[in-house]
Design the sequence.
C-alpha cells in the first residue's frame, strides 16, 4: 500500500490537486482512500459531487465515538474512491491538531487505512504535532509539497521541509520528501522558480500544473477535472502526475533553506 | 515554598502550580475547588492533600471536583464540561467555588475566566494555574493567595496581626503557628486571621483589618507586596528562625505595631538560656548535620545551635537531622534538639 501526503499553503490548491490525483489513480484501477485532514472539510467534496460528507469529528461530537461504525465515516465517491474528512472543532475552541490524531486512531480502530493508495490532504502548514500526524511512522512515507511560485507559498513549503527533516531523524521514521508539485498562478518563469526551489531543498519538480479554466468549470459542476473533462489537457496533466507518483522512488531528506536564501531565490526569478 | 535553587531542591521546590494553589484553596472551609482538566490531575492532588490531612490528624476530606476532560473535550473545547462541573458544585451550596486550570486546559485555550463570570449566585473565583506556563508550586500558592485577597474589602486597621501563607502541607504547620502566637502574645499582640489555613469564608473579609502581615517565608514576598499595595499593610518577610532571629523578630513585630519590645525580648532571651541549659548534656558531642545541604538556611541555624551548646560539627560525627525549613522560633529549636538527643543516645 502506498501512502502519500500533500502539504502546502492554505488556498494553494491542495484539495483540487488531491481530488484529481485520487480520481486519476482510481482510473488506473487502484483502490484509493482520500483523507482530508483539515477542519474546513472540503478535501473530498468534488469526489463526492459537491456533497460535504459528515466529518469524523462531527460524528464523534454528535453521537459519541462508541456509536460509530466504519460506514458512518467512509463514503464512496467518484469511481469508487473512498473519502474521509477528519473535520475538527468549531473555530476558536478546542484543538484541531488533536482532532486529526483522534481521527487517525479511529480509522486505525476500524481498519480503514487500507487499499492500494491512501492520499492524505493536509492543512496548509504543519502548525502543531497533530498536523504532522500523517508523516508519522506507519502513515505517509511520501510527502509532496504543493506550491506556486509566490514567496509565501514557497515559505510554507520550506517550513514543511523543516518538519519532514525533523521527523526523518527519528529512529523508525520512514517519512521522506517525494517531490514538489507546482500548482501555478501562471507567473512568469514560475516553473523554473519552483523547479529550482525543489532542487535546492534536495528534491525535484514532479509536475507542473498551470492555472486552467477547466478546473473552475469542473468545480462549478461539482466534479473533478478527471470526471468532468477527461479529454482536457489539464486532465492529462493530473493523469501524468498520478503515473509519476506511482513510479516515483526518489525519496529524500530535504534541506530546507533559510529565509534569506529563499528570498534571494524568489528575487532571481522575479 | 523556598526559592532555594540547588539542584537537589529542584524537585522539592519545583512542583506543580496546581498543587500549590490547591494547598491554599482547599483550606478555605465550605468551599469547593474545581480542577478544570483530566480527572487524574484532581485525583493525585486529592490523594496528596488527603494523606497530608491524615498526617495532621485532620478528618476533612479535600473538597475537589474535576471537570473530567476526556479526548473529545480536548478536541472540541472543554468550556462546556467546566460549566457542568460548576453547576454540580453550585448545587452543593458552597460559600466559594475556586476554579483551577490545568496544563491541557490552557493549551487548548479554554477561557475558564469567561465561564466563571456567568452568575451562579455563588462567588466563582478562577485562579491561573497552568504549570507549563512557567509556574511552580510556589507560584500556585502566590496566585491563589493574591486572588483570594482581592475578594476582601479595604477596612480600618485594628492593631492585630495576620499570618500569611502558612505551608499547609508541612508537618509542623500547627506547631509553627503556635510559636508565632506565643511570641506575638508576649508583645501583647493578637492574630487576626490565618490567611489561608482552615479559614472560614466570612473571615476572609477581615484580611485588611490587621496592622501587620507576617509571611511564612520569603517565597511569598510577592503576596506581601500585593497585600501592602491593596490594604497598605506592612509585612515581615518570614517566620523567625534561630536564637538571634527570634529576638530580632520580636523587635521588628513590636516596631511595626508600635508596641514596646523590651520586656518580651528579655523574657525570650531567658527562655532561650533555659533551653540551652536543658540540653547541656549534649555539650562536647561531635555531630554531623544531615539534611538538605550546607547551603540551606536550616544549616545556618543548626550550626549556631551547635555552637551555643559547644558541640563539634564534623563529617564523622553522629548524624543528626536538620529540618528542610529552618526551625521556627525558640520552640522549633527545642524540637530539633529533642531529635538530636534521640539520635545521639540511640
Sequence:
Amino acid at each position: 500500500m502506498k501512502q502519500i501526503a500533500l502539504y502546502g499553503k492554505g488556498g494553494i490548491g491542495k484539495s483540487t490537486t488531491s481530488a484529481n490525483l485520487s480520481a486519476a489513480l482510481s482510473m488506473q484501477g487502484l483502490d484509493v482512500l482520500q483523507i482530508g485532514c483539515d477542519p474546513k472539510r472540503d478535501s473530498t467534496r468534488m469526489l463526492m459531487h459537491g456533497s460535504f460528507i459528515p466529518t469524523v469529528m462531527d460524528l464523534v461530537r454528535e453521537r459519541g465515538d462508541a456509536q460509530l461504525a466504519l460506514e458512518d465515516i467512509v463514503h464512496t465517491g467518484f469511481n469508487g474512491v473512498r473519502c474521509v474528512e477528519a473535520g475538527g472543532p468549531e473555530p476558536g475552541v478546542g484543538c484541531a491538531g488533536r482532532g486529526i490524531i483522534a481521527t487517525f486512531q479511529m480509522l486505525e480502530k476500524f481498519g480503514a487505512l487500507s487499499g492500494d493508495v491512501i492520499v492524505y490532504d493536509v492543512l496548509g502548514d504543519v502548525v502543531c504535532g497533530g498536523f504532522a500526524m500523517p508523516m508519522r511512522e506507519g502513515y505517509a512515507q511520501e510527502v509532496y509539497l504543493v506550491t506556486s511560485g509566490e514567496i509565501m507559498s514557497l515559505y510554507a513549503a520550506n517550513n514543511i521541509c523543516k518538519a519532514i527533516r525533523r521527523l526523518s531523524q527519528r529512529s523508525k521514521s520512514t517519512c521522506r520528501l517525494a517531490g514538489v508539485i507546482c500548482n501555478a498562478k501562471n507567473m512568469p518563469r514560475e516553473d523554473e522558480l519552483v523547479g529550482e526551489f525543489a532542487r535546492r531543498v534536495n528534491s525535484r519538480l514532479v509536475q507542473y500544473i498551470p492555472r486552467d479554466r477547466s478546473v473552475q468549470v469542473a468545480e462549478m459542476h461539482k466534479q473533478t477535472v478527471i470526471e468532468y473533462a477527461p479529454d482536457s489537457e489539464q486532465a492529462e496533466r493530473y493523469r501524468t502526475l498520478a503515473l509519476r507518483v506511482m513510479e516515483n522512488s526518489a525519496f529524500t531528506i530535504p534541506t530546507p533553506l533559510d529565509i534569506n536564501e529563499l528570498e534571494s531565490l524568489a528575487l532571481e526569478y522575479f | 515554598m523556598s526559592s532555594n535553587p540547588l539542584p537537589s531542591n529542584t524537585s522539592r521546590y519545583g512542583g506543580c502550580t496546581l498543587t500549590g494553589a490547591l494547598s491554599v484553596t482547599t483550606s478555605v472551609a465550605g468551599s469547593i475547588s474545581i480542577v478544570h482538566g483530566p480527572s487524574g490531575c484532581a485525583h493525585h492532588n486529592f490523594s496528596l492533600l488527603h494523606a497530608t490531612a491524615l498526617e495532621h490528624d485532620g478528618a476533612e476530606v479535600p473538597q475537589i471536583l474535576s471537570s473530567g476532560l476526556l479526548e473529545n473535550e480536548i478536541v472540541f473545547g472543554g468550556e462546556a464540561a467546566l460549566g457542568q462541573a460548576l453547576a454540580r458544585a453550585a448545587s452543593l451550596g458552597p460559600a466559594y467555588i475556586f476554579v483551577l486550570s490545568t496544563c491541557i486546559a490552557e493549551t487548548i485555550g479554554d477561557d475558564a475566566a469567561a465561564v466563571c463570570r456567568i452568575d451562579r449566585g455563588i462567588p466563582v473565583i478562577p485562579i491561573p494555574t497552568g504549570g507549563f506556563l512557567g509556574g511552580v508550586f510556589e507560584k500556585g500558592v502566590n496566585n491563589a493567595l493574591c486572588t483570594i485577597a482581592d475578594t476582601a474589602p479595604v477596612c480600618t486597621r485594628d492593631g492585630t496581626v495576620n499570618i500569611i501563607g502558612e505551608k499547609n502541607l508541612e508537618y509542623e504547620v500547627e506547631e509553627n503557628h503556635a510559636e508565632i502566637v506565643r511570641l506575638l502574645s508576649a508583645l501583647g499582640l493578637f492574630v487576626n486571621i490565618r490567611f489561608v489555613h482552615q479559614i472560614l469564608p466570612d473571615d476572609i473579609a477581615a484580611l485588611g483589618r490587621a496592622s501587620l502581615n507576617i509571611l511564612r517565608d520569603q517565597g511569598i514576598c510577592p503576596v506581601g507586596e500585593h497585600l501592602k499595595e491593596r490594604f497598605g499593610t506592612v509585612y515581615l518577610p518570614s517566620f523567625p528562625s534561630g536564637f538571634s532571629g527570634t529576638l530580632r523578630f520580636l523587635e521588628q513585630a513590636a516596631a511595626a505595631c508600635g508596641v514596646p519590645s523590651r520586656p518580651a525580648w528579655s523574657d525570650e532571651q531567658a527562655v532561650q538560656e533555659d533551653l540551652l541549659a536543658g540540653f547541656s548534656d549534649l555539650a562536647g558531642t561531635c555531630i554531623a548535620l544531615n539534611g538538605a545541604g550546607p547551603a540551606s538556611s536550616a544549616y545556618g541555624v543548626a550550626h549556631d545551635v551547635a555552637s551555643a551548646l559547644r558541640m563539634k560539627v564534623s563529617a564523622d560525627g553522629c548524624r543528626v537531622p536538620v529540618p528542610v525549613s529552618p526551625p521556627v522560633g525558640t520552640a522549633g529549636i527545642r524540637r530539633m534538639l529533642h531529635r538530636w538527643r534521640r539520635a545521639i543516645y540511640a
